[in-house]
Write a structure and sequence with these properties.
Length: 189
Amino acid sequence: MVRMPPLPPIDPRPGREASVAVVALGANLGDRRATVESAVDRIARLPLVDEVALSPLHETVAVRPDGPDPDAPGYVNAVALVRTRLAPQVLLGMLHAIEEEHGRERRERWGDRTLDLDLIAYGDLESDAAHLLLPHPRAAERLFVLEPWLEIDPDAELPGRGRVADLVARLRSDAAGGRDADGSGEHGR
């Protein structure tokens, strides 16, 4: 009888290779911190999610179509790095479901919300499909996304846009020069 070496353990979750998805989290209604932490816990329990790392939480001013609104409830923002084997469009659908679980209603663009989950990037994937825009089309203009992302991953790169550290430096420079972060005179969430 010939003895064979033992077989390696079978991965119970075969399929696509794991990628790191960048998810921006924000909330400005209710118990904002608890909502963000609950959402991260929920993301970590999704099928085919192997690991979730959360940036520090940031307090930010609400942004409306016409600019910052210091009279609106402030936001708590963070970024999570999600190591997953879920397809990006499936992950996005699950993020929308988690928003709904937390009472998210989509009534007005850039309005107040109990929870906002944006898929910012998925590995180095770029997509201009209407149902899956990657990277997020306004991510490079948003310090409330880029700064937490940079804190959790100092070497981060936004596909097609460059190093996150360089994007943050440019936005800070623009803001110091009196220009809006995107240089257009308009802000948007």
